[in-house]
Amino acid sequence: MNKGKYIYAQLTDFIPRRVFDGIVDKYDGNKYVKSFSCWDQLLCMVFGQLIFCESMRELMYSLEAHKTKFYHLDFGNNVARRTLGETNEKRSYKIFEDFACVLMAEARKSYYKNDFEINIEGNVHLRLIYV
After folding, report:
1. Cα–Cα distance, 77 to 121 (Å, whole number)
2. Burial class (CB in 10 A: 0-12, 13-18, 19+), 128
3. 53, 66, 74, 106: which could join 59 in a potential S-S bond, CB 3.0 to 4.6 Å?
4. Coil, strand, or helix at residue 104?
């Protein structure tokens, strides 16, 4: 198994799927969806973050290069640029905003383990891809 795939698998295993699905249900994110779910969209964006994509075009080229591994990356059979682009336009950003808040809250909790404590003042920022 190559290192990139291993790191990706570790990251996606960490994602609390039930929490994400609850948020998706709250905003009807998968309403009228036949094949490309909010979960698929999230996995594509996680992949993009992991390989430092800075644009939709770069993400799509990277995804196309790994087309034979889609099944193992949990993307399903196909991810088309048009599908991902339309999905990013039509789905509520609030799904991912709420989920990011959940993950940041979990990250803050993880700083306080045993006798080890990190004092963070101010905000914690995430690197986002704007597409």
Report:
1. 44
2. exposed
3. 53
4. helix
The pTM is what?
Answer: 0.75
Query: Which burial class, exposed, middle or buried, applies to 8 when counting CB atoms under 10 A from its CB (0-12, 13-18, 19+)?
Result: buried
pLDDT of residue 72: 73
For the chain, give every domain's residue range.
3-15+29-92
Residue 106: CB partners within 8 Å, gap ≥ 6? 16
Tokens of 70: 């889609």
Specify the DSSP element, H or E, that contains 9.
helix 3-14
Q: Is the pLDDT of residue 131 over 50?
A: no
> What are 20-32's pLDDT values in tens digits?
999 999 999 999 8
pLDDT tens-digit series, residues 80-91: 778 888 888 889
Burial of 105 (0-12, 13-18, 19+ CB in 10 A): exposed
